[in-house]
Write a structure and sequence with these properties.
The chain is an alpha/beta fold and 268 residues long. It is built from eleven helices and ten strands. The strands form two sheets. Strands 4-3-1-2-9-10 form a six-stranded parallel sheet, sandwiched between helices. A four-stranded parallel sheet has the order 6-5-7-8, sandwiched between helices. It is globular and about 60 Å long. The structure holds D-glutamic acid.
Length: 268
């Protein structure tokens, strides 16, 4: 009988839930540990060293109690900064989301692509290298916003999204004569604002994210576990936070609706 695999998903907040939901459809019986690094939130405003230290501490803390088959950095910012180092430090499979540049290049008609992400992501060499490799011939607009990350996080915690605020954040693009016809949501949080963001742009503007491509990677790496309907020992999914707050307490019923059974705090 195949052992139930354990998959660790890490993000600074709710962004990774978009990735988790997709992967859970592929591997419904895997065991998921989701780490919300709410003490480190938002990563986009922090230094690379800060993010690296946090991600390493999180992985070490989880590995003290669990054997992991796969670690998913469900955060573009964390992937870009830490993925190669993590792969050198830890032996299990590690993957991470990066902005869906290849997909955007396939979809654009005008050749003008927008990258909406955190400030750290939009100016990072890693992203510029991806663009040089996969997107020559296309033009890019970059917009890094932490405000947008906070709005997405707040939305999940029940706060209304004001379109006037989104309009203000997106104004550097909205006032341009030519708008991008394809926009990469290069931060997992922004998937939760897709509906509101789409309304700001002309009809037909495509908003793309990396969830499908990460599912493709997981399908390859975890092919032994796909279509296994049941495992001998079925352990429950756990959600971790790095800081207990009132917000977290209020949020618990919502998290349980995502299929998590326990909430734990690991103070990192
Ligand atoms: N969700 C993360 C990403 O994809 C970052 C959000 C943050 O700034 O904490 O980049």
């Amino acid at each position: 009988m195949v052992r139930q695999p354990t998959i660790l998903i890490i993000d600074s907040g709710i962004g990774g839930l978009s990735i988790y939901s997709e992967i859970k459809q592929l591997l419904p019986y895997a065991r998921y540990l989701y780490f919300f690094d709410n003490r480190g939130f938002p990563y986009g405003e922090k230094s690379e060293q800060f993010i690296t230290d946090r991600i390493i501490s999180i992985v070490k803390a989880i590995l003290k109690n669990h054997v992991l088959e796969l670690i998913i950095l469900a955060c573009n910012t964390a992937t870009i900064i830490t993925l190669s180092l993590l792969r050198k430090m830890f032996f299990c499979s590690i993957i991470g989301v990066v902005p869906a540049i290849k997909l955007a290049v396939q979809l654009t008609n005008s050749g003008l692509i927008g990258l909406l992400a955190t400030q750290l992501t939009v100016r990072h060499q890693y992203v510029l290298k991806l663009i040089n490799k996969y997107a020559c011939g296309c033009n890019f607009l970059f917009l890094g916003s932490s405000k947008l990350v906070k709005i997405a996080e707040d939305k999940k915690y029940g706060k209304m999204v004001k379109s006037s605020v989104l309009r203000e954040i997106l104004s550097p693009w909205l006032k341009l004569f030519q708008l991008p016809d394809t926009i990469i949501l290069g931060c997992t949080h922004f998937v939760f604002l897709k509906y509101e963001l789409k309304k700001l742009f002309p009809e037909g503007t495509q908003l793309v994210d990396s969830s499908k491509s990460i599912v493709g990677c997981v399908a390859q790496l975890m092919s032994n576990y796909i279509n296994v309907g049941h495992f001998e020992v079925m352990r429950k999914n756990v959600i971790y936070f790095s800081l207990m707050t009132d917000r977290v307490r209020d949020f618990m019923p919502f998290l349980f609706s995502y299929g998590f059974c326990y909430l734990r705090i690991i103070s990192i």
